[in-house]
Specification:
It is built from ten helices and 13 strands. The chain is α/β, with parallel strands linked by helices. Helix 1 packs across helix 8, helix 8 runs antiparallel to helix 9 and helix 9 crosses helix 10.
């Protein structure tokens, strides 16, 4: 069983190659994509023993998800459903002024009916850390309950919990999100949130260090991490507040960057690293992800080490 267990939906992403428009695309590149499985892959690639749990349709597309994630190195423990469908989304990539467009097709996905009773909760009880995100409870009222029950399962088993706010305005309003997330907060040890979500969803204004400290004090979180995009990240915990800058990167594929950060950060914390080091590895994993097509960070520990140490890539011959 894994030291890190994650739970959530993984979709199949279909992207037209070479910036083609969706309406004229004759072919698609296909990638697995889901916040929690993305984080699990990143953690695995940095040496963590991670498992993703979920519910998938017993169909060729559901099995495609499992095969892809296993090829990325992530362990998978899923419930197979006889009904429901495999969620997908379409990503049309373009620069300014057109911009990138996302079209979701995830209604009635099998995962939206997942209950705690049918999921492999023993996997959570045997873990060191359980991770989920704010995307998952937004998908259905069933998952809203399930997320709370899984967090309670972890807490009852003395398993630490981590939660990535990861707000999506296409799924629910900021008011509904805040009301729901606050019911989970007493069960969460590590909160990770973008600065914009801390401000717009959680109602915390101020400098990132102030926000991290305020959230930790208000809800009793063990650790709060505020990600600030190009300005790096800040963490409050271990009786200190630390910050680290972002690493320079050439952006090829930004989707999944935040998930890569979460996976890199948690992998190093599970390995016993201090907050500053964990922030560096989260940032380095995120920077590398921006150079990799698809949603997952297909990195290795050696190249993440090089980014942290400030070494530039060379041509391998």
């Amino acid at each position: 069983m894994g030291d890190l267990v994650t739970f959530g939906e993984t979709m199949l992403r279909l992207s037209p190659p070479r910036h083609t428009r969706l309406e004229t695309a004759g072919s698609f590149d296909v990638y697995p994509g889901g916040a929690e499985s993305n984080a699990g892959v990143a953690a695995t690639r940095l040496g963590a023993d991670a498992v993703w749990i979920s519910k998938l349709p017993n169909s060729p597309l559901g099995r495609h998800v499992v095969s892809d994630l296993r090829r990325c190195g992530l362990d998978v423990d899923v419930v197979w459903a006889d009904s429901g469908r495999q969620g997908t989304y379409y990503l049309e990539v373009a620069g300014a002024p057109r911009g990138t467009d996302v079209v979701y097709d995830r209604a009635d996905a099998a995962v939206t009916t997942a209950t705690a009773d049918e999921l492999p909760t023993e996997t959570i009880r045997d873990a060191k850390l359980f991770l989920t995100s704010g995307i998952t409870p937004a998908l259905s009222s069933t998952l809203e309950r399930t997320v709370g029950e899984l967090l309670e399962t972890a807490r009852d088993a003395d398993v630490r919990t981590a939660f990535d706010v990861n707000y999506r305005s296409k799924l629910w309003s900021d008011t509904t999100a805040r009301e729901t997330l606050e019911t989970y907060f007493p069960l969460i040890d590590v909160l990770i949130t973008p600065a914009r979500d801390a401000r717009n969803v959680l109602g915390e204004a101020g400098e990132p260090a102030e926000v991290a400290t305020a959230l930790a004090d208000r809800w009793g979180f063990e650790t709060v991490v505020i990600t600030c995009g190009a300005d790096g990240a800040v963490a409050a915990g271990d009786d200190e507040v630390v910050d680290r800058p972002a690493f320079e990167t050439e952006t090829v594929a930004p989707i999944g960057t935040g998930d890569a950060f979460v996976g890199g950060f948690l992998a190093r914390r599970l390995d016993g690293a201090d907050l500053g080091t964990a922030l560096e590895y989260g940032g380095a994993t995120a920077a590398l992800k921006r150079t990799i097509p698809g949603d997952v960070a297909l990195v290795n520990r050696e190249e993440v080490d090089r980014v942290v140490e400030g070494e530039h890539a060379t041509i391998s011959r």
